[in-house]
Design a protein that fits this description.
This protein is mainly beta. Helix content is 12%, strand content 45%. The protein is built from one helix and nine strands, in the order βαββββββββ.
């Protein structure tokens, strides 16, 4: 069994939220999806990490744990079977998505150069 080196954030990403983010990323042709927190709320955003002027779309998905972070992923790595996922993010640059109903697990690398995984206050 694989395990994350640390779990610095965890939340549930509902099936409709994931579907909406993937559809928006496709429409906007966003190369990245980010999961971020201002400490109070957790958001999933379609974006272009290298172009601040590109269109973005953000969805609030959970309450934060008091820690601020930004984990950026390549949209192409989010080719998952639809469903609700329990998500864990590690400050070591790795994330874990486990389907809450099916026996499906995905380990997705975080794009370190575009992310802030300090998990500061």
């Amino acid at each position: 069994d694989l395990a994350l080196p640390s779990v610095d954030c965890s939340f549930t990403l509902k099936e409709d939220e994931l579907a909406s983010v993937l559809k928006t990323a496709s429409i906007l042709q966003s190369p990245n999806i980010s999961i971020s927190s201002d400490g109070v709320k957790i958001y999933v955003t379609t974006c272009d990490a290298k172009d601040n002027s590109a269109h973005t779309d953000s969805t609030e998905v959970a309450d934060g744990n008091g820690k601020k972070f930004k984990a950026v992923f390549l949209t192409e790595n989010f080719k998952m079977i639809s469903g609700t996922y329990d998500v864990q993010i590690s400050s070591k640059g790795l994330s874990y998505f486990k389907n809450s109903k099916e026996d499906l697990e995905y380990w997705i690398a975080i794009e370190a150069k575009d992310s802030d995984l300090s998990f500061g206050d």
